[in-house]
Design goal:
The complex is a heterodimer of chains A (351) and B (614). With 351 residues, chain A is of the alpha/beta class. Chain A has a single domain, classed as Thiamin diphosphate (ThDP)-binding fold, Pyr/PP domains (Rossmann fold, 3-Layer(aba) Sandwich), CATH 3.40.50. Chain A contains 12 helices and 13 strands. An 8-stranded mixed β-sheet of chain A has the order 2-1-3-4-8-7-13-9, sandwiched between helices. In chain A, strands 10-12-11 form a 3-stranded antiparallel β-sheet. In chain A, strands 5-6 form a two-stranded antiparallel sheet. In chain A, helix 2 links the parallel strand 1 and strand 2. The longest helix of chain A has 15 residues. A 7-stranded mixed β-sheet of chain B has the order 11-10-12-13-15-14-21, with helices on both faces. Chain B folds into 4 domains: 193 residues, Pyruvate-ferredoxin oxidoreductase, PFOR, domain III (Pyruvate-ferredoxin Oxidoreductase, domain 3), CATH 3.40.920.10; 183 residues, Thiamin diphosphate (ThDP)-binding fold, Pyr/PP domains (Rossmann fold); 78 residues, no CATH class; 114 residues, Rossmann fold (3-Layer(aba) Sandwich). In chain B, helix 2 links the parallel strand 5 and strand 6. Chain B is built from 20 helices and 23 strands. Classes of the chains: A alpha/beta (351), B alpha/beta (614). Chains A and B meet through strand 2, helix 3, helix 5, helix 10 and helix 11 of A and strand 9, helix 7, strand 11, helix 9 and helix 10 of B. The complex binds thiamine diphosphate, iron/sulfur cluster and magnesium ion.
Chain lengths: 351, 614
């Protein structure tokens, strides 16, 4: 954990994005998490993704539940509004916020306890509704903030730091998100920035419920032998289905890994996802196949990462509700109040 | 035949005992409306137990030229259409009352009572000889009994026909067949029974321009007028019809004229936690949002209610109260959630409650909730109940002040931030305890903050320092003080003669209280009245109590919840507040209030007052 205050000074040589912002403009407060916590790497990836996408930082609303993971929105996008809500209820608050103003970008940050245990219901229903959001679970298999109890994503048979063996079967949030109809489902690893950053970019670009399960080792309570969410375990068992680039109008991102076959996926907003397929059989448009693929590899003890499924034609909740294009929060008395003439008619109908 | 059959014009109670789903509801409502059209006020009530086999339902109409809209108690005439509840129904008729039943099948004499007038009409026989289609038989049987009833009560057939005409406008066939059925019953009664009976309806002019509407529908309309754009809810009796009414009102009133798109969003949440979460999220983001629920839902929402209080997020809950608990009496009315709402959640919390007395006030207060929520940046409860919410009530027409724009409260805009205004999310700039807020997305570099419950200073910077916590808690108290002068004031009505006694009441108790005052005065008891319309209490509540030796507090709950709140908030000696409590799940009646207060007053006369006080 670093306690040194970040210098405010912006080096003139810092790289700038299309809007002229530097990385600094996407940073937040200094993290108070444990040094080496996977969550901080995800924070870094979010900053990088927003920088790359040239998002206006203040047009993002960051919403989280409670947990170490849910604290992180304070550590990125310092010029955005953030809301540290209640445990497990980020999805409903995000849904309401999204209904109030469809023009902002909604970033939901949650933990595995927050989303798979106490908030399992809200996780499921926000995805079912197709809320336009990027929903990131920083998944460490434990309750970090309350000091290391198992969460519902802890694998059966995995051992806690205190030596307790988990006898409950685990929830695979990505598999469930697929089943629930999420129109974008991905998994990644906090330690794999090359994979994670473009996934976050693509999720932000996606219109609909975009879910990313990010394995994020807790160095304090879940990075020992016997844990299946440790850095070493995930590195050894990682099965990446694809690599992803997001091509915006600006220069494409540098590709630094070996190219395989490339599949282009058009997003709603005109950006293109370039999928570098590592697994020749993997089709990101086939929900059923993705479910099978996941199940097969989970049985083999492998953690499948990459973009598992995307429906580029997805519709979001606003489309389902047929709401006006103007954000609801900016409608005033004139647009909302039917007035006294209408009321007189209503009165007459009630006599 | 009874010795003294009840004889009364425009003042009686008639109860229909029906089987749920038999189509009786619309015929019964038609009955009530016809009487209104004849210029006589009525007060109908649905009585529908939630879990008795065969689903019996009752519909009670109090015909009251004097305009007493509270429940009266007792039944002068029973329209017994449900064999399952027969015995109980017969037993509930007042001595000298009337029984109207389907006499197609002969009934043993033991099934009747000596002291009532029995009016048998072979409804099934008449229906079956006229109609062959089972559905028609079912529906027209109801209209036939309405026709027979109109003859018994000497009602104007024209008034009923006019209403049928309005209902089936443009559907000539349905219209004429309904009118035909009406006359089938009416003519049978006219030629076979000694009608009219002792209970009669006579044309009057006592309705005026009043409207006839359910409280839930009125409150939903208030939400439309009050600018609510987000509604998230989870079905629960007796509040579901409020969300459904909001949906219907929005469909008619809230679609963009050109694009036809919705200027609202309604989500049926997966539970009450999600519903209130959606409301809080929308409120945080600057939309006017509300949920509808009842007691069990409020229980589930309490964590979020606290978040709304501490994080200062505008939010509105319409609580249509019912008797508790979840597996309790969902179809019975009570005022039983005052304490659970006023102090809902953890930590030190207090919330604003509004108590509408009827649909008209439900409409106004529902709209007002949204101004209050945004002005005070907190949770506002509209405390309806089943009696107001799910029954048609005669009330003054809805009114809207065109000149009034919504009060969006203290919102700092990008311009204000650019002008160099000091923005502290939790900074009290003018002593009213209410800070400025910014909507997310306002300004590229100014005005953003990270929203937390507490653990932050006036500028929303993270801190767990004790003094910062206390500073914030004190400001929240100042804000609550500010609320006292913003919420609807109590309304006082003084007795004709000066008196040492007062009575406090609220919400749906109103009509019964108004009626009870007359009864008490007739017995020489003079009482000043104070109708409380909101919590926190305005200073006039304490002065009203100070100005009287004893004050009765009339409530529809067991634990005298409002009384506890008055004692708690104003440090008042509890002995001065005499609880008058009605909590069996039926609406409170004037008879009950007058008896309870009258008995206490009579006792006071026995014990000199000074002794009791000292
Ligand atoms: C209603 C409620 N119950 C319990 C808690 C205590 N609590 C705080 S964080 C947490 C678990 C967080 O786990 P996770 O979401 O996995 O986040 P992590 O700290 O692991 O990132 C719990 C149980 C709470 N804040 N609220
Ligand atoms: S306890 Fe675990 S999850 Fe929490 S900050 Fe430390 S390493 Fe991260
Ligand atoms: Mg965790």
């Amino acid at each position: 954990m670093t306690y040194i205050a970040k210098p405010k000074f912006h080096h003139p040589g810092l790289p700038k994005n299309e809007l002229g912002f530097t990385h600094r403009d996407y940073e937040g407060k200094v993290s108070t998490l444990c040094a080496g916590c996977g969550h901080d790497s995800i924070t870094g990836a979010i900053i990088e993704a927003c920088f790359q996408l040239s998002i206006e930082p203040h047009r993002v609303a960051k919403i989280s539940g409670i947990g170490c993971s849910s604290k992180t929105p304070d550590y990125f996008l310092g010029n955005s509004h953030g809301f540290n809500t209640v445990h497990g209820r980020m999805p409903s608050v995000l849904t309401g916020a999204n209904l109030a103003n469809r023009d902002l970008i909604y970033l939901g940050v949650s933990g595995d306890g927050d989303s798979a245990s106490i908030g399992f219901g809200q996780f499921a229903h926000s995805i079912r509704r197709g809320v336009n959001m990027t929903y990131i679970v920083e998944n460490n298999g434990v309750y970090g903030l309350t000091k290391g109890q198992f969460s519902a994503t802890a694998d059966r048979g995995s051992k806690s730091k205190r030596g307790v063996v988990n006898s409950d079967s685990s929830i695979d949030l990505a598999a469930i998100a697929l089943q629930l109809g999420a129109s974008f489902v991905a998994r990644s690893f906090s330690g794999d920035k090359t994979q994670l950053v473009p996934l976050i970019e693509a999720a932000i670009r996606h219109r609909g419920a975009a879910f990313i399960d990010v394995i994020s080792p807790c160095v304090a309570f879940n990075n020992h032998t016997g844990s299946t969410k440790s850095f070493d375990y995930v590195r050894e068992h990682n099965e990446a289905v694809n690599r992803l680039d997001v091509i915006t109008s600006r220069a494409p991102i540098q590709i630094e890994y070996k190219p395989g076959s490339v599949q282009m996926v058009e997003q709603h907003d005109g950006t293109t996802l370039a999928l570098r397929k590592l697994d020749a059989d993997y089709d990101v448009h086939d929900r059923l196949a993705a479910q099978g693929f996941l199940a097969k590899h989970t049985a083999k003890g492998q953690v499948v990462t990459g973009l598992l499924y995307v429906d580029p034609e997805a519709e979001d909740l606003h489309a389902h509700l047929n709401t006006v294009n103007t954000p609801l929060n900016s409608l005033g008395t004139e647009q909302l109040c039917p007035g006294s003439a209408a009321l007189d008619k209503i009165n007459a109908s009630l006599r | 035949m009874p010795a003294n059959p009840i004889s009364s014009v425009n003042d009686f109670v008639i109860r229909f005992a029906n089987v749920n789903g038999s189509g009786s509801a619309s015929a019964n409502e038609l009955f009530a409306r016809s009487i209104l059209r004849m210029g006589i006020p009525v007060s109908p009530r649905n009585i529908f137990p939630s879990n008795i086999q065969g689903l019996p339902t009752w519909y009670e109409v109090r015909v009251t030229e004097a305009g007493y809209l509270g429940a009266r108690g007792g039944v002068d005439m029973m329209v017994a259409m449900n064999p399952q509840t027969w015995d109980k129904d017969i037993a509930s008729i007042e001595p000298g009352g009337y029984l109207f039943y389907d006499s197609t099948k002969p009934m043993p004499a033991s099934k009747f009572r000596e002291d009532i007038t029995v009016l048998g009409v072979p409804l099934t026989a008449i229906t079956n000889s006229t109609y062959t289609d089972p559905r028609q038989r079912q529906l027209f049987k109801n209209i036939i009994y309405l026709g027979a009833l109109s003859a018994m009560l000497d009602m104007d057939a024209k008034a009923i026909e006019a209403l049928i005409g309005e209902q089936y406008k443009g559907k000539e066939k349905l219209l004429s067949s309904n009118v035909h059925a009406l006359h089938l019953g009416r003519d049978w009664a006219l030629s076979n029974l000694k009608v009219p009976i002792g209970l009669r309806v006579q044309k009057a002019d006592k309705v005026g321009d009043r409207i006839f509407v359910e409280g839930n529908s009125a409150a939903a309309l208030g939400a439309v007028y009050g600018g609510a754009t987000v509604c998230a809810w989870y079905p629960i009796t007796p509040s579901s019809s409020l969300a459904e009414a909001f949906t219907n009102h929005c469909k008619r009133l809230r679609h963009d004229a050109e694009t036809k798109k919705a200027k609202y969003a309604i989500v049926q949440g997966e539970d009450e936690l999600a519903s209130i979460g959606i409301v809080v999220g929308a409120g945080w983001n600057g939309a006017r949002a509300f949920t509808t629920t009842s007691g069990p839902g409020v229980s589930l929402m309490t964590e979020f209610i606290g978040l709304s209080y501490f994080a200062e997020i505008p939010a509105v809950i319409f609580n249509v109260q019912r008797a508790g608990p979840s597996t309790g009496m969902p179809t019975r009315t009570q005022q039983c959630d005052l304490i659970s709402c006023a102090y809902a959640s953890h930590g030190d919390t207090k919330h604003v409650l509004l108590f509408p007395e009827d649909p008209a006030e439900g409409f106004e207060m529902a709209a007002q909730c949204f101004d209050l929520a945004e002005r005070l940046q907190t949770m506002i409860f509209l405390m309806l109940d089943l009696d107001i919410g799910m029954n048609h009530r005669l009330c003054r027409p809805f009114k809207w002040d065109e000149s009034k724009a919504y009060d969006r409260g203290k919102v700092m805009t990008a311009e204000m931030l650019d002008d160099g205004r000091d923005f502290g999310r939790y900074l009290d700039v003018d002593g009213d305890g209410i800070p400025f807020r910014t909507y997310p997305g306002t300004h590229p570099t100014k005005g953003s903050f990270f929203t937390r419950g507490t653990s932050r200073d006036r500028y929303a910077r993270y801190t767990e320092e004790g003094p910062a916590y206390q500073d914030n808690m004190q400001r929240l108290l100042r804000k609550f003080e500010t609320a006292k002068d913003m919420v609807p004031r109590p309304l006082q009505a003084n007795a004709a003669k000066q008196t040492k006694y007062g009575v406090i009441y609220y919400g749906s108790t109103s009509p019964a209280m108004d009626e009870a005052i007359g009864m008490l005065e007739a017995h020489g008891h003079q009482l000043d009245r104070l109708r409380i319309r909101a919590f926190p209490f305005h200073s006039s509540v304490a002065s009203f109590i100070a100005n009287h030796d004893f004050v009765y507090v009339v409530e529809q709950n067991r634990d005298a919840q409002l009384r506890s709140m008055i004692v708690n908030e104003n440090d008042i000696d509890p002995i001065r507040l005499v609880p008058i409590l009605h909590y069996d799940g039926t609406p409170i009646t004037a008879r009950f209030i007058a008896k309870a207060i009258g008995d206490h007053q009579d006792q006071l006369k026995v014990t000199p007052l000074r002794k009791v006080v000292s």
